[in-house]
TrEMBL record, chain A:
GO terms for molecular function: zinc ion transmembrane transporter activity. This is Solute carrier family 30 member 6. Pfam families: Cation_efflux. InterPro entries: Cation_efflux_TM, Cation_efflux_TMD_sf, CDF_SLC30A. Heterodimer with SLC30A5; form a functional zinc ion transmembrane transporter. Residues 364-384 have a biased composition (Low complexity). It comes from Sander lucioperca. It is a multi-pass membrane protein. Residues 344-397 are annotated as: Disordered. PANTHER family: ZINC TRANSPORTER 6.
From TrEMBL, chain B:
It comes from Sander lucioperca (Pike-perch). Residues 529-556 are annotated as: Disordered. Gene3D superfamilies: Cation efflux protein transmembrane domain (1.20.1510.10). Residues 397-623 form the Cation efflux protein transmembrane domain. It is a multi-pass membrane protein. It catalyses: Zn(2+)(in) + 2 H(+)(out) = Zn(2+)(out) + 2 H(+)(in). GO terms for molecular function: antiporter activity; metal ion binding; zinc ion transmembrane transporter activity. The gene is slc30a5. This is Zinc transporter. One of its GO terms (cellular component) is ER to Golgi transport vesicle membrane. The lineage of its organism: Eukaryota, Metazoa, Chordata, Craniata, Vertebrata. GO terms for biological process: intracellular zinc ion homeostasis; zinc ion import into Golgi lumen.
Amino acid sequence: QGTIHPFRKTHKSVFGKLKQEFRLVTSDRRSWRILLFGALNLLCTGCLLMWCSSTNSMALTAYTYLTIFDLFSLITCLISSWVTMKKPSQLYSFGFDRLEVLAVFASTVLVQLGALFILKERCVCLPLTHTQTHSGRLLVGTFVALFFNLLTLLSVRNKPFTYVSEAASSSWLQEHVADLSRSLCGVIPGLSSVLLPRMNPFVLINMAGALSLCITYMLIEINNYNAVDTASAVAIALMTFGTMYPMSVYSGKVLLQTTPSHVIGQLDKLLREVSTLEGVLEVRNEHFWTVGFGSLAGSAHVRIRRDANEQLVLAHVTNRLLPLVSTLTVQIFKDDWTRPLLSGTLSSSPSPVPPLGPEGYAIPPSSSALPPLLSDPLTSTPSKPSSPPPEFAFDTPGRNVQQVVLPAAGHHAHGPYGGLGLAYGASPYAGMLSQGVARPGMPSSQSYRTAFGAPTLPLRFGTSNPLASQSQYRQYQP
Amino acid sequence: MVEVPNSRLTRYIVLLVVTKVLKALGIFESYDILKVVHIVQFIFILKLGSAVILLFFQKPFSSGKAISKRQWIKLLKHAVFSCIISLLGFFGLTLCGPLRTLLLFEHSDVVVIALLAVLFTSSGGGPSKVGGHRYYTTALESKTLPPNKKTVLDTASEGHHDSALTHFLYTAIAFLGVADHKGGVVLLVASLCLKVGFHTASRKLSVEIGGAKRLYALDNLVSAVVLLPWVIVLSATTESKVESWSSLILPFGMIILSVMILEFYVEAICNTKMETPRCARYGAVALFLSALLLANFWTHPLTDQLRSMSKPAQQLSTEHVLSGGVIVSAVFFIMASSILSSPSKKGQKGTLVGYSPEGTPLYNFMGDALQHTSQSLPRFIKDSLKQILEEYDSRQIFYFLCLNLAFTFVELFYGVWTNSLGLISDGFHMLFDCSALVLGLFAALMTRWKATRIFSYGYGRVEILSGFINGLFLMVIAFFVFVESVTRVLDPPNINTDMLTPVSVGGLLVNLVGICAFSHAHAHAHGGKGCSSNDHGHSHHGHSHSEHSHGGHGHSHGMNANMRGVFLHVLADTLGSVGVIISTILIRQFGWLIADPLCSLFIATLIFLSVIPLLKDACEVLLLRIPQENEKDLNSALEKIEKIEGVLSYRDPHFWRHSANMIAGTIHLQIMSDVVEQRIIQQVTAILKDAGVNNLSVQVEKEAYFQHMSGLSTGFQEVLAMTQQMESMKYLKDGTCIM
């Protein structure tokens, strides 16, 4: 069992693969620019690290970590351009979009860990002797780092980080700056266009770090006050934490396969709509999560009535959810499907004719989609509740239960499918169109009902349908 | 002010403003009087005077119900406290001068409580309050900036003191090592907090006694009685600086009226007529502004007069002049109090989703928001402890964390005791390492949380993410150690090896315990749940064995990335201890200074290499790869599925490991139109369950489905137009139909 062997082998091929992928990436002109900036960044970081050790300043080290973070963000940028070229493979069936998220997460976490190290160093060094900080290259280093950081930030279009910084909740630093600038705008209204929009967190932290380094330099130069170096190192580390934390939370949540909270409202609406569809009893085990940044994937189990047409319901549910959820799997679930009565009539009858048109269509309109039938006491179909469907209970997770009475067994099974099929045979999709597509445009289940309440609407199924089905029902009532 | 006061309230506002101006005047005057009158005497006279007046107005004995003995005792306590607070307040006045006292001490309870709420609970309310807090602190800072006056402290400490009390306070402040005006500021802030707490506490008593006014009257009386013996002793032992008490009657009367009586009544009235925050705001603004004006124009008529007869004018230099800092801080205080006392608009965290049939708005609360607010902290701690001890993994981590922390604190205490810097720094390192354990513990705890709306699969994945973070953590550690040791290889420093051996041996012992515990945990977990599939264990089994020689590692290849991360952490620590011991021996025996950096270089490489598999596995899981150990099973399962009768083909097979014990999957099947869907679903689910997939969604599609779909999507555009037409109709209908 050469368990070590496959690892080595893949390791070797990993390098080869990396080379190949790198070549793939560099085939694009845009990535040249990223590589150029990466080289510059490496140079700058090296310089800064040298100055850090020569000035013995912790604050400058903390600031240098921001430069290193820029390097990470450039790498992330490269990865994201690589991801766009890759197709999903058999092993990674969702594609490599997640790599982007992982890169963002890893780089933000790494920077935070670096900041943690700075804090630790300070804690350890605090009781020790106060190290002498030489202010020699401090200011130069600050400005070089600031210049490079801003240059990198503003000239490289970093898609993943832009997305995350916009989508994540605003950081502690941003909140405070926004608050300050709001009160400043109260005094000088002219500044509102400059100060009020949401600041880019990276620019903000770079500026704030540079500012605190300048203050450090001044205090060391003027008062020879060395403890301020420690203080500003801690401040920069804390600011780094504050800036990176929301982003790592956001990307971490994507990695944890959580439902993004901003789509929950929309999803709820869609699910409510789905649960009011014809034949649907409940939607459960619904899992929705983001694959990469943006694209949703999801699965849900839909429990339907025994007499409902699975393919039709599936088509409707898919049609409803597909605009929002691009990778969707819907499992249709029926209780007691083994009972011969139903299955015999429904679909396992070996009819040579494809039963899609007549059968697929006969059931929904005849059963309860029509308002007159809803109030008919003689129908065995469960009438829809007239109040809005219950809110999704948040404490019962993953459940989306709508309390609907199970159909009284068998009543509907008496329904004359063949007869109906004959009656509807001629119009397979005319009614279908108007019924099915009218729904997705409607914003909520309420309006769905409203639309049906409109007096003109029953007409679209053809005038004869309701009466026909109703009379047939009456006929077959025992 | 934002809201325009309506005419009915204007009266009260004017009254309030006038009272506040009078109060400022009174405080200024009392500052001057306090220069000649002893503070205890002063307070006694104040209390007595106001008690006499209040007795006259309020008649606390003749009206209302009788006061029981128990209530008298409570009243006595109350009076003692109020005496202490006014003593502190007036002592602060003598130290800081009237303006600063007014700015600091005379805050309304509402403002202070709002400030404290912002300080100590993050949910105090919105950014505006935080802004107020910021102003407040800025004001405090600009206040503590030294105003240009010479400290009285030196003269005071060498000169005689009026009484033991002042002496005590002076020495206390001198002990704190701040200049006396700063001490005064601290004193005033402390007594302000005391005052607020006191007011809140006395509310109950005031209800018991029968009204705040009655309580106030009685309180003044009792405190006068309490202070009486002290005053008698004081006047008997020390000679008074005051020549003629008769000239002081008028100012005393004025102070009593303005500071004690009038203010109390007017504030009580205003608080009932207007809302409290508004009252506080107007009052504060009036008070601060008048204090500023008075400080500018106060020409000390009384002191001049008094000074001529009592003392040489030596204290002229200690006069508290108006400095720029004070003005700035006054402005800030006004802003802060107006912001803090503005009514907080309680932001709804939920989003409005619509209206209920009754017309009340419905809010959509996110599951997380509800979860955070629903538990109190002690209860949360208790529950989590219980949960931690329930399960094996988290219990192991918890015990080891306790052991580690105990060792760390022993080390730290011993380091502080013997003043050994090396020990202290090592203790901090250990503390730092504990953070990884805490992370692991938290993740192990979170894993068992129930699934919520947001975490629809449950929290199992947190474990993997925590393992990933721990892996990154170790990478960073290895990197730093590497860099450090490279610089040391180039220039080996001389190290002191005295303390190293016992500490590292102790650390080694602790970590060995950890390794034993965790490797056992892995074996346990492995045996317990890892046997669902047959060829599960050996595909991963020991490639670490041949790479490096730590035995437990092979077992740690269970699916639990979290435990692996924690284990690797402990392992790294152990390696560190071993390295220190070896390098100490080498340095002692042979004097090879280079051994230490070489050792750490080696350790860094080892850590790095051992972390790579963890990171790789965690990455694969996070990137939703097909689980490696189930790959073969899944492939054969897919082949089987294709062979099921009636199945035409399958598409979009996604299988991924969600957490340690959940493999999720989705698949779309195309089947013949004459097959029962549910049967296929059952078969497919069974097959895939055998392959290890335990959270599955199967979408079964017949030809009909595609025809439906194409039917649904072709006419989309025209129907969109139709729905827009219906939209306009819907708005008319909406109200009725919702009902």
